[in-house]
Fold NADH oxidase.
Amino acid sequence: MAKERLVVVGGDAAGMSAASQARRLKGPAELEITAFERGHFTSYSACGIPYWIGGQVAGRDELIARTPEEHRARDIDLRTRTEVVELDLPGRRVRARDLESGAESWTAYDKLVLATGARPVRPRLPGIGAHGVHGVQTLDDGRRLMDDLERSPGRRAVVVGAGYIGVEMAEALVRRGYAVTVLHRGEQPMATLDPDMGGLVHGAMNRMGIVTVSRAEVTKILTDEEGRAVAVATAAGDEYPADVVVLGIGVEPRTALARAAGLPVGTSGGLLTDLSMRVRGHEEVWAGGDCVEVLDLVAGRTRHIPLGTHANKHGQVIGSNVGGGYATFPGVVGTAVSKVCDLEIARTGLRERDALEAGLRFVTVTIASTNTAGYYPGAEPMTVKMLAERRTGRLLGVQIVGGAGAAKRVDVAAVALTAGMTVDQVVSLDLGYAPPFSPVWDPVLVAARKAVSAVRAAGV
Amino acid sequence: MAKERLVVVGGDAAGMSAASQARRLKGPAELEITAFERGHFTSYSACGIPYWIGGQVAGRDELIARTPEEHRARDIDLRTRTEVVELDLPGRRVRARDLESGAESWTAYDKLVLATGARPVRPRLPGIGAHGVHGVQTLDDGRRLMDDLERSPGRRAVVVGAGYIGVEMAEALVRRGYAVTVLHRGEQPMATLDPDMGGLVHGAMNRMGIVTVSRAEVTKILTDEEGRAVAVATAAGDEYPADVVVLGIGVEPRTALARAAGLPVGTSGGLLTDLSMRVRGHEEVWAGGDCVEVLDLVAGRTRHIPLGTHANKHGQVIGSNVGGGYATFPGVVGTAVSKVCDLEIARTGLRERDALEAGLRFVTVTIASTNTAGYYPGAEPMTVKMLAERRTGRLLGVQIVGGAGAAKRVDVAAVALTAGMTVDQVVSLDLGYAPPFSPVWDPVLVAARKAVSAVRAAGV
């Protein structure tokens, strides 16, 4: 049998996990692996960038799980600073450009993995390209921001967007001594939560000294004579002075290439795959990571949920399948955790608006509890909001905001959602209890008890 | 309809939860509630006693969720220092003794709740009743120990037993400045874990300066002329000097009364109930808390698992049922969490010996990971052991030992066990990921990945 050729486009979590897993299953005599990466780095934790910027992580290299050299040592022909600029699916080949020399060449494949990731949304605004305006999506972005902060230290930072990246970057800049203002378009920060829970994050951020401006529509980045950002202007006519501007508005799947080649994408522009992570309708093409849509098991539809943990799993599944094994990625329930300073933030399943959009009738309850037994020293507040389906009592979603241990508490709900449990079943769960770790009724169980009553009271 | 009479025997978690829930559903015009409690206190956290002794919790009163007066204010006729000494089931009445006056009287019931709790195992050894030898099962026990520590401060403590209470009391006494020696009969401390995992606890305790002596059979408590304990002697002929001795050998269901009345008990002596917590074969008698056996859903048998969190749930279920509502307690999966100083310890499901005893064929895997992303500051080691059934790949049990966040990590496995998930399904779980909270592959998922391979390698 002829040697099989695997081409991987994109050298971060999904792409290199796929390449590594395929290599584990098939040696170089059976499988030739070529991977293309536009940037300088591979297999790094983009999620770690805020902690590098904030100084908790000493250096960039700590975020790199595996360097290009390490991949090459495992017989993966890895080409960094090389961008794939065309997919020729009928001809089973890709055209790649060396970003240093500009030289282009075609590489043939038998199997193709697309792991092109996501790109930060950059609104087309005057000044958006100015010096001092930064995204934080890639390690190259992080390096540029870090260089800028070190070369031009300032006092005032404006963060645009109040999602995960926005609040994490706000914390990072506070840690570096900046006075931070967060401008965001929503009613409350953390639009991945319902507004009532986002309000708790809002209050906590303000108490940490972070200014948050809601319903703020950025219209322009003001610059000085040298083209450096000096302030951010909003539609309300306000100007927020800034020595540095960080964009955390969100990301979108980087799928222009794939769309040009006719591959199927969903409503958010992410590639659509089957359960083995094969692109729908294309036998020889797999895709994973931030460039795909994943099945939301609770809502029953696909969504774009860019997260390193999904990307790693996708890579593992793809690598198993292209390496001759068998694995599937059944979908997600929408779990995400974060923190801003000491406040932990978590969600899983559906928010109210998601449940409405999914056509579900539901009840919501919110309870206040503590992360440890109330009498245990350092007990911190924890608020849990829970959604349950009317009539059936099926758990639909949980949001948690609180002190230490609040974030990973959401995992209980994530597993219960995956199992399709009702809130009655959740009440009976045998969760770990000891005073340093939980009140005798875990806050998630307290919420479930209240949800059981609410379901009963709501009728059908 | 005549007013119904509910009698509750035992005024801690299960009994008073049942009384309170019944009262919530039925007012005093419909239901008369009488509760008998031998001790001075009601509705307290016995699990909190080590933290009161250790000084983290300021005072005893903080451990009391609801005082006798508060219960009485809610129309519960609560009689403290009153012990029920006979159950007359055919006559539907109980005989109670006032422990202050010695006076006895009969109280009739329509429905009876038994919540008599557990009592510490006290081996019949010379000196076991000496001054300075303490159990820590009830708040009265805790008060006696606390008084003793304050009146006769010493330097050396011996803890007998290395289960949850033993290790927690070891920590408490270290915090009070004692040199602590823990004597235990097993190969390793924490026999609720497999010995390999107990070995990790052993090493950590030694590094904290706690001396542990394994395979130690206590034969005698040596006393001075005034009858105060001065040392603990073992079968090996060793003597361990002690200014205070704490017994943490375990507890057994306090069911002598119930057995005398002919109620059914299991192999551990705990009462046997149906799923509504009604004593099997007895329409009008309910039982819950540390005096019952609970159904172990993984092993398919009943066990005695004395834990405050179960007791509270039992009380809630019993109170709903005796109050005219409907609730059930489906069983447990054997989750327990604890800590000794900064080391967190958790288990759920079956240990190797449990799985063997249950007639299961299984594989075990153990992995080393960290509680946060490896590069995040303060990342601490976390070891996860996982058992999975051969052939089916069904998850059977998880044990975790490690740094902050290790203990409650086990809840993920507890929910997965309840749902009957396979380790393949666990690998795909959508757990919260962000660098301050987890590596990109959560340690539980890493263990599950390894378990999947082990199941495949093991064949049928």
